Amino acid sequence: MVQRLEGRVAVVTGGASGIGLATVRRFANEGAKVVVADLDPASGKAAADEAGGLFVQVDVTDEEQVKALFQTTVDTYGKLDIAFNNAGISPPDDDSILTTGIEAWDRVQKVNLTSVYLCCKYAIPHMQANGKGSIVNTASFVATMGAATSQISYTASKGGVLAMSRELGVQFAREGIRVNALSPGPVNTPLLQELFAKDPERAARRLVHVPLGRFAEPEEIAAAVAFLASDDSSFMTASNFLVDGGIAGAYVTPL
Ligand SMILES: NC(=O)c1ccc[n+]([C@@H]2O[C@H](COP(=O)([O-])OP(=O)(O)OC[C@H]3O[C@@H](n4cnc5c(N)ncnc54)[C@H](O)[C@@H]3O)[C@@H](O)[C@H]2O)c1
């Protein structure tokens, strides 16, 4: 594996599972020191141990905990180069606007959007001190496209992540701090597998829109994150980096 991240220090939120876990592994394989930040202590610690890094238990909606996460990272490894702000949820009670209550709306906004605000707020000063940095915020292809299978708060939260990433990318560009939004298409994670195994029609309704004809594997998303985190993407900031199997570009897909 190429060693593009040799000597870099990275924080991955939601690093205990799915896209985050695949990225923890990829970052470590490319030479980075990785801090795994997650609510889940068992799988979070296992991920950090496997990567030879550090586990910090954190609720990304809690300002003091997020502040402490980045301070602990710098206290332990001396600096902060990369923040992958990726923790997010898509609970079943976030659905059509007609049935989604304010409690579900607020919970999803907090975990998916407020958390990214907090992580950027407390990562950027450390990157300013370091004279450079790369922030990757996980949005989604639904920030760009409408879905008739609505998850209204989720979609709105990812639209917020996309707009915030663009603005921060522009604001901090001259300080060597790049901020990009990563917009994955549907990814083959345990949650998705369980949902679609129970309901094949639901899976088929979505798969028909993907030109590549399948969902992404977490490792394919992690490869894109590693690119955005590394100097290979040095002329990219404020972008919406779609890794979506072609969904956003498609009108009619192959049979
Ligand atoms: N899976 C997909 O199809 C897909 C598609 C597009 C975007 N995304 C986005 O990618 C990101 C990761 O998704 P995933 O599929 O890997 O999810 P996942 O459920 O496999 O992993 C999410 C991780 O975040 C952690 N987490 C949840 N709430 C947290 C909190 N408050 N504080 C700290 N950690 C918390 C969980 O413990 C878990 O380890 C999310 O932002 C999601 O919205 C996923």
From TrEMBL:
Q: Name one GO molecular function term.
A: oxidoreductase activity
Coiled-coil positions are none
Q: Which InterPro entries match?
A: NAD(P)-bd_dom_sf (IPR036291), SDR_fam (IPR002347)
Top-level division of the source organism's lineage? Bacteria
Q: Pfam families, per this entry? A: adh_short_C2 (PF13561)
Q: Does the keyword Membrane apply?
A: no
Q: Which UniProt keywords apply?
A: Oxidoreductase
The entry's protein name is Short-chain dehydrogenase
Q: Which family does it belong to?
A: Belongs to the short-chain dehydrogenases/reductases (SDR) family.
